[in-house]
Amino acid sequence: MKLQYKITIFMTLMLVTVIGGIGILTFRQVENTIEHQMGNNAMDLAVTIASMDVIKETLATTKDYRVIQDKIESFKHDTRFNYIIVMDMDGIKYSYPIEYDLGKKYISGGEERVLKYGESYVSADKNVLISAIRAFVPVYYEGEQVGAVLVGLLNNTVYEEVRPYIFNFQLTIAIGIIVGIIGAAALSYNIKKSIFGLEPKEIALLLGQRDNILQSLKNGIMAVDEKGNIILLNKNAKDVLGFKDSDVGKNISNFNLAYTKEIMDVLESKESIYNEEVRLAPQKILLCSHTIMKNHKNEIIGVVSSFQDLSEVKRMAEELTGIRKLTNDLRAQSHEFSNKLQTISGLIQLEEYDKAVKYISDLSERRHEILGTLTYKIKDVHMAGILLSKYNKAAEAKIEMKIDPNSNVTALPKEISADDVCSILGNLIDNAIDELVKVKDGKLYIKINSDANELKIIVKDNGMGISEDIRDKIFLRGYTTKSGYRGFGLNIVKKIVDAAEGAIELKSDSGTCWEITIPMGRGN
Questions:
Q1: Which of 235, 346, 406, 502 has the most C-beta neighbours closer than 10 Å?
Q2: How many whole angstroms separate alpha carbon 42 and alpha carbon 154?
Q3: Residue 496: beta bridge partners?
Q4: How confident is the model at residue 175 (pLDDT cuts 50, 70, 90)?
């Protein structure tokens, strides 16, 4: 049976049981109350009749049926009571609704207590013929009981009077049950609609499938509610972030991670973020998307975050792009050597042998100087390699690039890798070269030093500088003053430096000067 029908039937049975039960109990209570009131009224009238002098004297002295019958008939029609019987101690009737029964013994029963013991009481006479409430009261004359009075009222008489009220009550009960059944049907339909017409088994199957899908995804998935409490973690998210099953339900502010901090920022800003790189560790980079979750009322109910571990992808990409960089560097170097060879060839043809020798000597000295600095001062081969490639690129663009001979790098901070330093140098130098090609006699100065306390990088050019009105925007992801899909370099630099708790200082008096300081250890 479908869930909708089960709910409807269950609610209907509950309503019928509850409302019907209440109705029956209420009706029984009303019935008892009516019978009790009937008995009290009958008793009051019986006491009144028993106290009449004419009744007492007649029973005690004359034994005249007609006197008592006429007296009773004179006021009986003004009451609601069906029969009033006066009898002597032998049960002989002195008044009765049917006159031919006068003088006969009362045989309906129930009078024994009043005649034998002189008690006053109310009893119900329910037999196959009639159903009535009767009140019995003894009659005393000069201190001696001389008879009894019976006042009776048929139940049907009272029920006829209260029948409209009982009908209204029953109608109200019936309407209540019908409205309840309609409400149960509407509720079951609404529930069915809310769960998209799915049955419990289908919902359980879908939940199981959803869980299997989430757990099998290579991407990490985390969901939090509007307060930042974790409501969902898949296997990959737990493995990458180091979370446990017991962490579900905890607030993400308890975890000191750049990733969880970004989720809190999204909750506060109420704006989704897509394809954002987050650095967990020097060799652990995540590509994250944090999407705001909303309910049908368009209210924010949390954030669902998905991420991909870029560490391996980035290493593969660097290997692939390294071939392109090497090709470009070789092309630039070949082009530069070709220009120099043509210059030497021209000097020889002009028979300017001394100038040709001097030109070759100057070239050799500059090459020896740059290679010596890179070989002996920059111990990391990755950094030396990128500096050499950028030197050749600058030379091809007719830009004078100088690496300070006092540069000296023997160790790197714990929080960053050689690749991170290469990213910083590569992005800053590329930006400088892009600007210096626009000016005449472009000059680029590089200095790198490390000691026990910090790593310091200086990149300085004599370009046009960075205007004040865009300095607050240059680190934003995707912001650029150039054409094309650019604007990511400085954002990457900022993230690397911030992750290592370093500092970036920008000076733009005559050209642009970047000074980056990264402590060798956190807290230094």
A1: 502
A2: 11
A3: none
A4: confident
